[in-house]
Amino acid sequence: MRRAGLGEGAAAGSYGYANSGYSVYEEENERLTESLRTKVSAIKSLSIEIGTEVKNQNKMLSEMENDFDSAGGLLGATMGRLRTLSRGSQTKLLCYMMLFSLFVFFVIYWIIKLR
Predict the structure, then answer these.
(1) Phi, psi angle pair for 39, to nearest 5°
(2) Are 44 and 36 within 8 A, CB to CB?
(3) pLDDT computed for residue 39 by the predictor
(4) Is the pTM of this model over 0.85?
(5) Radius of gyration over alpha carbons of the chain, in Å?
(6) Structure confidence at residue 10 as a pLDDT band (50, 70, 90)
(7) How far apart are the two ends of the chain, measured CA to CA in Å?
(8) Residue 74 phi, psi (nearest 5)
(9) pLDDT at 7 over 80
C-alpha cells in the first residue's frame, strides 16, 4: 500500500498521512484490486472450461480405443478365415476370383459406356 505525506512536512495530528493523497492511493488500490479480481475470475472460468474439454476429449479417446479394439478383432477373424480359405482347394478359389474379376470389369465397362 502506498502512503503519501510521510516525512517532515506532515501535520502533527495526521499520523503522517495526508488525507487527500491517502484516499487517492486507496481508490487506486481498490480499482487495481477489482481489476485483478475480474482477471482471476476470467482465468478461473477458462481453466474450468479447459477441464471440461479435457474430460470430453478423454471420453472420446476411450470410445475410439474401444472401436479400434473391436475393428482389430474383426480384422483378425477375417484374416483367420482367409488363411483357412487359402489352405483349401486352390482351383475353386481361383475360379471364384476370376469370375468376380470379370464381373467387376463388366460393371466398370458398363459404367464408362453410359457416360
Answers:
(1) -65, -40
(2) no
(3) 97
(4) no
(5) 40
(6) very low
(7) 84
(8) -65, -40
(9) no
